[in-house]
Amino acid sequence: MSGPEEDPWAPSTPPWEKPIPLKIPKPPPAPTSPPAHLDYPPVYNGLDYLRSVVSHLDHYEPSPRGLKFAVLHLQAAAETLLKARLVAIDWRKVFAKEAEADHAAYRNGDFISCSLDETIKRLRAEGIDIEPEDKGNITHLGKLRNQLQHFGITTGARAVEARATHVLDFLIAFVDDYLRPGLSGSEAQHLDEEMRSIRLALPRIRGYVKIIMDRVGPELVGREWYTMRCPDCSQWALLAEGGEVTCLFCDKNWEAEQFPLEYATGVLGHSLRDYHKGEAIPAEQCPECGAFALVGEAYLVNAPEEQVQYCFGCSTVFQGLMNCMRCTSLYQPMEDSFPICADCLADLG
Ligand SMILES: [Zn+2]
Ligand SMILES: [Zn+2]
Ligand SMILES: [Zn+2]
């Protein structure tokens, strides 16, 4: 049997190139079991990026340069580690167009790989659990990375740090759950050593975020009906009150009608690309105040698991709003009434 290739992305030899085995082959693993062969070099690179992220964030006040590298390397770590898992399932799956997957191109690294968004979609299709919240954090990180490359960081350093901490948390759990079980021997040992030092730094990094949350905490007390997760820092520190949308952690404001898109991408983890491609902006006209600032999915800090409809224009919480069958505008249906709004009902006499 030929040994694995030297190329970091090269998987084991594909089935059609394999010599006829002399021994009875082992049965293929069940789909949910750890990968039979996880290529270590990409994992190694991903860990290296994570180490760099930690060293840049592990300061009470990271420098702008430190934050820049933290974001760039965190994005690189996410991409490398998630794709390493996808390759362990099937190397063809990292091609942007799976149908055009070619092993020679793959071995030379000469191909267009799928986006991070698409990687997450494909991993989910294989039964790998990635929560919408984690997807939101990663999506937002990608946005920050692009901003960095074009304009430099404009968002507050605190927000970047807080957001990065969430992604770091997610990646550590991902390595534990989906990469570590595919390794053994010296590779597993190396991974454990790397992860140990990353884990040691994590409480300190979280601690810097907590200092700010402790400071703004008293201001949030009694305003739980307006408090949500912020799309920039991912903290439950966003007040959407009386048409004003402000994050106390980031010290940032948004326009009520501009905010639904930020919320959909940064908190709910929707793909910004889908909206650019023409998917409708995730806001409807509020039946209460008339602003185009009502979202069909939002979560408040007092019931973080309960989905509500929320208007950022008048900060009204709705449940069960429906689109009128006649004019399509949103309305609150009464029991046993026609599925049309009061205006249309009056109009029809
Ligand atoms: Zn914030
Ligand atoms: Zn409203
Ligand atoms: Zn109507």
Question: How is the secondary structure organized here?
Answer:
Layout: H1 40-57, H2 64-89, H3 103-108, H4 116-125, H5 132-151, H6 157-179, H7 185-220, E1 227-228, E2 238-241, E3 244-247, E4 252-255, H8 259-266, H9 272-276, E5 294-300, E6 303-311, E7 317-318, E8 322-323, E9 330-331, H10 342-347
Antiparallel strand pairs: 1-2, 2-3, 3-4, 5-6, 6-7, 8-9
Helix pairs in contact: 1-2, 1-7, 2-4, 2-5, 2-6, 5-6, 6-7
The chain binds zinc ion (3 copies).
Residues 159, 230, 232-233, 235, 237-238, 247, 249-250 line the site of one zinc ion (ZN).
Describe the structure.
- There is one protein chain.
- The protein has 349 residues and is an alpha+beta fold.
- It folds into two domains: 15-215, no CATH class; 224-318, no CATH class.
- It is 45% helix and 10% strand.
- The protein contains ten helices and nine strands.
- The strands form three sheets. Strands 1-2-3-4 form a four-stranded antiparallel β-sheet, with no helix packed on it. It has a three-stranded antiparallel β-sheet with strand order 5-6-7.
- A hairpin with a 4-residue loop joins strand 3 and strand 4 (252-255).
- Helix 1 (40-57) runs parallel beside helix 7, helix 2 (64-89) crosses helix 5 (132-151) and helix 6 (157-179) packs antiparallel against helix 7 (185-220).
- The chain is globular, with a radius of gyration of 24 Å.
- The relative contact order is 0.09.
- Residues 1-35 have low confidence and may be disordered.
- Bound molecules: zinc ion (ZN) (3 copies).
- Residues 286, 288-289, 291, 311, 313-314, 316 line the site of one zinc ion (ZN).
